[in-house]
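Run folding on both entries below.
>entry_1
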Amino acid sequence: MRISTLFQKRKSNPKKTNKEEMLFPIFCKVYAVKSPDHQGAIVQSRVGDKLLVVSTPSEDHPYCVSVYSITLNRVLGFIEEALAEKLTATFGENFCRDGEVEQITGGPPYRYYGCNIRVMDTQYFIEDMHQPSP
């Protein structure tokens, strides 16, 4: 069996996961942080910044999940594919969940900054964004 055939079957039938099977909040690392744009966003981030954890699938990456900073209006990076697949199975395609910056890592003497986040099972932050300002 070709790998592309296996992947297509997996894409059309993701494993079903119950929200109760996953323990929230989920603490995880942000990946793909080496790009200059992501590095700039991480450097400007602070512990406690509100995030949106958003499903952003593409043809090449059907379980891609972006980590978007509400404060900075920028993407910090992505979460690991295995966790992204579980979240997609739990919340469905094109989901959006709340998150927070838990820790900024790296930096001098290291070459890159990194970011650890907390993913919650709520979506209050997106609802707050759509409320009119007083």
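>entry_2
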Amino acid sequence: MIEDQPFKVRSWYGLPAEIVVGRTWHWVRAAGLPLPHPGLVDIHLHQGIPRREREQLTYWHELGHLETLPLALLHALALWLTGRRRADTPWTLRLIIGTLAWLAGWELAAEFYTMGRAGQDYARLYRKAHPRLPMGLLFWAGMSGLTAAGTLWLLGGRRDK
């Protein structure tokens, strides 16, 4: 794989897509719909890993988003169905918290997919990377915390009377 070159894929459920990984921006074009986004998670999470391996992990991470889309949609639906019944909070706050919980959960799912694809090399690469900050720990703790806290918050609370 070469940076900024499209990589054509098809998800396990048949959705065709194209993945382009740049230094700061990534593009996933699924079924003709372009989804540009900054690669903030990948840039920080893969810090210190040699370029070739970092690029491979980033492609797998982006593919992981595509492969885990049905799971992410189920999570979004669950958040929406439970969160909309919360009567004690403005809808804008419920939307922000739900969106953060959903995106963090989807990032976790994509990185779990990456771990599965990389196998034992995943841990080996991170042990050798020696980043300035423990980005892996910050990623896993932060995304897990946002997912769990946001999801549990939307599930709890006072309901409509």
